[in-house]
Design a protein that fits this description.
By secondary structure, the protein is an alpha+beta fold. The protein folds into two domains: 44 residues; 102 residues, no CATH class. 39% of the residues lie in helices and 18% in strands. It contains five helices and six strands; from the N terminus they run βββββααβααα. The protein has a three-stranded antiparallel sheet, with no helix packed on it. A three-stranded mixed sheet has the order 5-4-6. A hairpin with a 5-residue loop joins strand 4 and strand 5.
Amino acid sequence: MKCPFCADPNTQVTDTRENEDGDVVRRRRRCVKCDKRFTTYERIDLKMPHIVKRNGNRTEFDHAKLAGSMKLALRKRPVTIEAIDAAVDRIEARLLSMGEQEVPSEKIGELVMKELKKLDKVAYIRFASVYRNFADVDEFSEVIREVQPRPRKSKANKPGIDPEHDLFGG
């Protein structure tokens, strides 16, 4: 592995860690010549399906483009790079498990929205607003209602329960 700073081929691995799923290995390296440190990721190189765009064009799957679109939606949001990488890895694993040679871009968009919804509601809405290309405010409002927490019913709202004299003597 060449050093990205001085291009010297002599580097040492200082730390190795696997992700939770065990399908990506993260290595911290140190250049012997310039003593700079950098990180590399090692993952299995499997043949990803081609992407069929809405206009019918086909393109190769691009890990960097997928990660970049998620990072753009998550820009200035409190989500770690590790969480984003894990989400991208889950999307790629899902695409591979489908066993298809071609996948519509809409399917990838839906997988991204599912992951973003788990990571950050604001990023989910950002991505959905661009991906779904809302025609009006009502469509946008529908997505916002989708991620808003539902109000919980309290004991006081339940019929037959007096909140001042509950079962525990309160």
